[in-house]
Amino acid sequence: MRAVGMHPACLLAIFLSVLTVFFATPWFVGSAQRLPQEPIATTTTARNAALVAATAEVLKETSDLRQLSILRPVQASAQSRAEIERMIMKNLDEETTAADMHAAEVTLKKLGLAPPDFQYRALMIRLLTEQVAGYYEPKTQQFHLADWIDLDGQKPIMAHELTHALQDQHFNLRRFEHWPKGDSDAEAAAHALIEGDATLAMAMYVANNPLRALAFLRSLGTTGMATEELDKAPRALRESLLFPYQEGMNWTRTLYKHGGWSEVSHAFTTLPQSTEQIMHPEKYFAHEAPVKVTLPDIAPLLSAGSSGTGVPPVTHAQDARATWKRLASDVNGERGFYLILDQFLKSPTESHRAAAGWGGDRFEIYEGSKGEVLYVSLSTWDTENDAREFFDAYVKRTEARYSNATLVSFERGGEPTSAKRYRTAEGDVLIELRGNRCVFIEGVAETDEARIMGLLRQ
């Protein structure tokens, strides 16, 4: 479960979570708000001159700290909220198609991870406009800072963004901009490397001089940091946005302890391949690669009517293809499955335990002509016990997800280890465990079940 259309950008809320790693005490926050204010440059010329000087200063210190040499100067500019909002809208439109955003929106709603009235693009624009305090743009090799925070308060953010500039100079960040479709889990892992590296460097930059943290918190007190949009965003989306910074920093710190900055730099050549490797660094060191899972196109097997209505199947496959459209084919990964489970289990320990042991997966989302939605997932697990644990957790999640679900019997075929079928207002839900593999189908019409399950069992 990953937020589409994202690019490296420093979220203000992330920085506060980073500070807690080193300095979290009630005194720290309270004292920061009582410090006297320093004068802020009152003219654009003066501010730009100060920004140029600060950029050179922070770039030099960040380069020494991160042990990446400066290959070329980095230009910086300050931007207003309106300019940042225009940048966000431009990047969303350029990097993410309307179809991609629609697929993400439909998927979140189908899995119960977002409310029925959720609008993906509108929320992302509001949320990022609220939260982005700075960003580095690989296309122009420049970074931009919010003009409503004083320069001293900006320096930790500058250290983060200038780490991105150094990454770009040494490892070419543009190669991550157009990730192949169909493996968002691996893409999320790569972003965890990029952001975790920059966040750890930023934390170390602050640790070198705690007064920098005080200046940052003071600037937040004067500018009125807002988190309203972040706080009310669907949990799965919010945690997906935070994952590269929080879990990425934890993972990068493990690499740093293992082999210093050279180990972190080497990771840009030997990329993490899954969120499982981020959540369990030992799997990265062991090169435990995910299993590639494939799913057939089931559109020709779907009835022309809406799911769950009992409409007889169509005669010709091409009519079904015209009626149903596959919106997305992607990978949830261990992190995605954790979010899907815990949205309803509300027990992080149980959800993490059930999602651990992930070996690989693929899911697909189909949409019918009347707005019907069908979700299909096939996953493989390290052991049969891991698969059983996830199956049991997914059953609990399903019963909580569909309050009107009724357990009914159905023809299994092929003697699966275990299987359940629920009737809901959104169509039938089928859950099947076969050895170390799990199959889930949500929103399927009763008339289609046997044909689909027969194909998936092959």
Summarize the structure.
The chain has helices at residues 12-23, 26-32, 44-66, 81-95, 98-110, 120-131, 151-171, 184-207, 211-223, 228-232, 235-266, 275-279, 281-285, 317-323, 333-345, 348-355, 384-401, 449-456; strands at 9-11, 75-79, 132-137, 142-146, 324-330, 358-368, 373-381, 406-408, 418-424, 427-434, 437-444. With 458 residues, the chain is α+β, with helices and mostly antiparallel strands.
| Total beta strands | 11
How many distinct helices? 18
> Quick one: overall form?
elongated
- Strand ordering within the main sheet: 5-6-7-11-10-9-8
Query: What is the structural class?
Result: alpha+beta
- The helicity comes to 40-55%
Helix and strand element order: EHHHEHHHEEHHHHHHHHEHHEEHEEEEH
Largest sheet: 7 strands, antiparallel
Strand content: 15-25%
Give the distance, in angstroms, between the N- and C-terminal Cα atoms.
Answer: 27 Å
Chain-averaged pLDDT: 84
Over the alpha carbons, how many angstroms does the gyration radius reach? 24 Å
Uncertain runs are 1-41, 308-318
